[in-house]
């Protein structure tokens, strides 16, 4: 029997008629639901799209093991959430971790803040992919290193609980009484020199030892793993498709998402161009902005390869034209200019930009030009980036990204 308010119930897990059934493949049949979502993509009959969705399904299934087997709210631990391997919607500047929690328990997060640009904590009722529909209200709470007054390389501890513990005067952050998950972002600007945090999470309330799972519990978790990919893609397909339906291709639609970082304005778009064309993204930069970036997604909301390809740029990495504006170029071939965003072989997909803690939120524009006419569409003093310079920059990018914590 599944106890009330147990981790199983909190994650929406169902009872099985035959919990000791040894036939594994029938239990994985809900994976087909993720493949059937190909109908929700832009080109469902395209064999390349179909293969991409199959790969995305396997990515989500492999991630789901961490979600359902790694830890529980009484015995929390960090698991990978999004990173260069699990790419369904990440920011390349961020390493994301998650841990299961419960709103009626108290938790201590402690360690060293490192020197990353932003360290943030988000708690909410459920994590995406674990339910068919995200609950509203979401139970969303967030706090970052600035809110907590943490300095680079500082050792610290923070208590997370629904109410501040009586007599406790240290760092404290509230969680919703129905909270079910905590998400952590390690956000870097300077990939080569900033240092990721080192953190632990522990439950402060008396709990029994971490138990051996019963056969029924194991099968229930496998059952939920199989449902996870379709739930995950259903959520994110709607987000990217919605942009296309409302504004079409090559137009930005600034937005603040419920449940996302409250200080952050996103500027999503869906891009499309031909092989002999280029897209020019152009924008002012807010006079005051703590962090900003822009990245490319594939048509299914996965971040494009960003270790071995320059498919993202942030405010530290980007070149600004002499007039102070930011201009980036999307093209299949290296255009030999600063701020090339490499679409990794895709001629359509998504763009996501972020203004974080900014005094304003300019809306960028996109121009579609012939690749051979690109230079004439950019300022005359736009520098030339040689193949040797690009290769050196990419080598630094690869080394820096590989040295970050994945899990």
Give, in spatial order, the strands making up the sheet with the most strands.
1-2-8-4-5
- Overall pLDDT score: 94
Please work out how many helical segments DSSP would assign. 8
Based on CA atoms alone, the radius of gyration comes out at 22 Å
Which structural class do the helices and strands define? alpha+beta
How many structural domains can be distinguished in the coordinates? 2
End-to-end separation in angstroms reads 33 Å
Task: Describe the secondary-structure layout.
Blueprint: H1 7-10, H2 24-27, H3 31-36, H4 47-70, E1 79-80, E2 94-100, E3 107-112, E4 118-124, E5 141-144, H5 145-148, E6 155-161, E7 172-174, E8 181-187, E9 198-203, H6 215-247, E10 264-272, E11 277-283, E12 289-297, E13 312-314, E14 326-330, E15 340-341, E16 348-358, E17 365-370, H7 374-377, H8 387-402
Parallel strand pairs: 6-7, 14-15
Antiparallel strand pairs: 1-2, 2-8, 3-6, 3-9, 4-5, 4-8, 10-16, 11-14, 11-17, 12-13, 12-16
Helix pairs in contact: 4-6
Give descriptors for this structure:
407 residues, alpha+beta, 2 domains, 23% helix, globular, disordered N terminus
In short:
The chain has 407 residues and is an alpha+beta fold.
Give a description of the structure.
This protein is α+β, with helices and mostly antiparallel strands and 407 residues long. It folds into two domains: 7-233, no CATH class; 248-402, Sandwich (Jelly Rolls), CATH 2.60.120.1600. It is 23% helix and 25% strand. It is built from eight helices and 17 strands. The protein has helices at residues 7-10, 24-27, 31-36, 47-70, 145-148, 215-247, 374-377, 387-402; strands at 79-80, 94-100, 107-112, 118-124, 141-144, 155-161, 172-174, 181-187, 198-203, 264-272, 277-283, 289-297, 312-314, 326-330, 340-341, 348-358, 365-370. The strands form four sheets. It has a five-stranded antiparallel sheet. The protein has a four-stranded mixed sheet with strand order 7-6-3-9, with no helix packed on it. The chain has a four-stranded antiparallel sheet with strand order 10-16-12-13. Helix 4 (47-70) crosses helix 6. The longest helix has 33 residues, at 215-247. The radius of gyration is 22 Å and the shape is globular. The relative contact order is 0.15.
């Amino acid at each position: 029997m599944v106890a009330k308010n147990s981790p199983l119930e909190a994650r929406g897990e169902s009872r099985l008629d035959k919990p000791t059934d040894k036939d594994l493949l029938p239990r994985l049949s809900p994976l087909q639901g993720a493949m059937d979502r190909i109908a929700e993509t832009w080109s469902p009959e395209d064999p390349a799209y179909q293969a991409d969705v199959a790969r995305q399904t396997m990515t989500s299934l492999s991630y789901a093991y961490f979600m359902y087997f790694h830890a529980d709210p009484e015995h929390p631990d960090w698991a990978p959430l999004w990173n260069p391997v699990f790419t369904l919607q990440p920011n390349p500047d961020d390493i994301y971790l998650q841990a299961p929690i419960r709103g009626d328990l108290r938790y201590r997060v402690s360690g060293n803040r490192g020197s990353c640009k932003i360290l943030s904590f988000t708690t909410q009722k459920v994590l995406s992919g674990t339910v068919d529909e995200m609950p509203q209200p979401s139970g969303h709470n967030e706090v970052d290193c600035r809110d907590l007054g943490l300095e680079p390389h500082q050792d610290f501890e923070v208590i997370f609980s629904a109410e501040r513990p009586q007599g406790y005067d240290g760092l404290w952050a509230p969680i919703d009484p129905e909270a079910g998950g905590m998400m952590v972002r390690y956000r870097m600007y300077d990939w080569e020199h900033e240092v990721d945090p080192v953190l632990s999470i522990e439950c402060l309330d008396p709990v029994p030892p971490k138990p051996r799972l019963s056969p029924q519990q194991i099968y229930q978790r496998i059952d939920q793993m199989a449902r996870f990919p379709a739930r995950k893609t259903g959520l994110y397909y709607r987000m990217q498709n919605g942009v296309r339906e409302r504004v079409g291709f090559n137009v930005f639609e600034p937005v603040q998402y419920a449940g996302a970082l409250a200080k952050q304005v996103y500027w999503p778009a869906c891009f499309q161009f031909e092989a002999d064309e280029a897209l020019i993204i152009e924008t002012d930069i807010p006079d005051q902005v703590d962090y900003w970036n822009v990245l490319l997604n594939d048509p299914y909301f996965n971040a494009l390869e960003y270790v071995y390809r320059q498919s993202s740029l942030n405010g530290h990495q980007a070149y600004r034209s002499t007039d102070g504006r930011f201009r980036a170029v999307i093209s299949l071939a290296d255009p030999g200019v600063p701020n090339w965003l490499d679409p990794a072989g895709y001629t359509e997909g998504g763009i996501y930009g972020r203004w974080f803690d900014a005094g304003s939120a300019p809306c960028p524009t996109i121009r579609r030009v012939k690749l051979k006419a690109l230079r004439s569409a950019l300022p005359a003093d736009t520098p030339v980036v040689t193949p040797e310079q690009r290769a050196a920059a990419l080598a630094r990018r690869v080394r820096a990204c590989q040295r970050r914590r994945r899990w």
